[in-house]
Write a structure and sequence with these properties.
8 helices, Beta-lactamase, 9 strands, single chain, 15% strand, 3-stranded antiparallel sheet, 6-stranded antiparallel sheet, 274 residues, alpha+beta
């Protein structure tokens, strides 16, 4: 099912920190470098986005909101302009109309994100960036006030804890909140545990693994398969080559940590699945 050595060689040439290839209940291959181990936390960067589709679906199951509700019901400052059409689904699919930006050290606070203008009509264009996740965070935070929780605590209790995964640390913004599009550090064991949770609960999280009309290859925080990949593959992707691949039809899971701008998902997967 997996041709590990060519894939591992590709990763080694591109700043490998950790590579774990696993099935549903056992590790098939693991390799660590640059001082990393299964228990040493690593930054996920934008791989962090993959948590929020799962968290949103759990919130829907608990009746907190619906994916196609207008967020203006809670974000009242959106009611008088075109932002009134924005839904949680659009924010998580990155089709809400915000421009590129809000990544890395430029992630805005909730307050700043809510003040940012749209660049396109909601629902019509996919634009990668961090601002929509921060707007979703502001919406989720207001929805959570009554239950005395926060988006990150909701995620921990309803997704990560049941999955057997834990966040080692999470960056803090100037307003004291943690960003949603980036900032989490997990060790390889915890990210693998999250992948196994997704594999076991694929039907539960089907909405998170469905693309939009604007971009059929992006779900709710997850990238979806291109034509050259297994059709049911989905993956989290972060700067520097961070990747979490889930391939249900092969019952195959892969964690990759690294430090290279030249790491390419399709090149790695082509070798792994040859």
């Amino acid at each position: 099912m997996a041709n590990v050595e060519p894939a591992a060689a590709y990763a080694r040439e591109r700043g490998l920190h950790a590579l774990v290839v696993a099935g549903p209940d056992r590790i098939l291959y693991e390799e660590y470098a640059a001082g990393y181990s299964a228990e040493r936390p690593h930054a996920l960067y934008s791989g962090t986005k993959s948590f929020w589709g799962s968290a949103a679906i759990e919130a829907v199951r608990q009746g907190l909101f619906r994916l196609d509700d207008p967020v203006a019901e809670v974000l009242t400052e959106f009611r008088t302009d075109e932002r009134a059409a924005i839904t949680p689904r659009m924010l998580l699919q990155l089709t809400a109309g915000y421009g590129f930006g809000g990544l890395g050290s430029a992630v805005p606070t909730y307050e700043r994100a809510l003040a940012m203008p749209l660049r396109s009509t909601p629902g019509t264009r996919f634009t990668y960036g961090g601002v929509p996740l921060q707007v979703f965070g502001a919406y989720f935070a207001r929805k959570s006030i009554a239950s005395g929780t926060t988006p990150h605590e909701f995620l921990r209790v309803n997704v990560l804890q049941p999955a057997g995964a834990s966040v080692a640390s999470w960056r803090t913004l100037s307003d004291g909140t943690h960003p949603l599009p980036t900032g989490a550090q997990l060790d390889a064991s915890s990210w693998l545990a999250y992948a196994r949770w997704m594999l076991r609960n694929g039907d539960r999280y089907a909405d998170a693994l469905t693309g939009s009309g604007a971009n059929p290859r992006y779900g709710l925080g997850w990238w979806l398969a291109s034509a050259s990949m297994p059709r049911d593959l989905y993956y989290a992707s972060g700067s520097g080559g961070q990747a979490l691949y889930v391939i249900p039809s092969l019952e195959l899971l892969v964690v990759h940590f690294g430090n290279s701008s030249s790491f390419k998902h399709e090149a790695f997967l082509k070798r792994l699945l040859a």
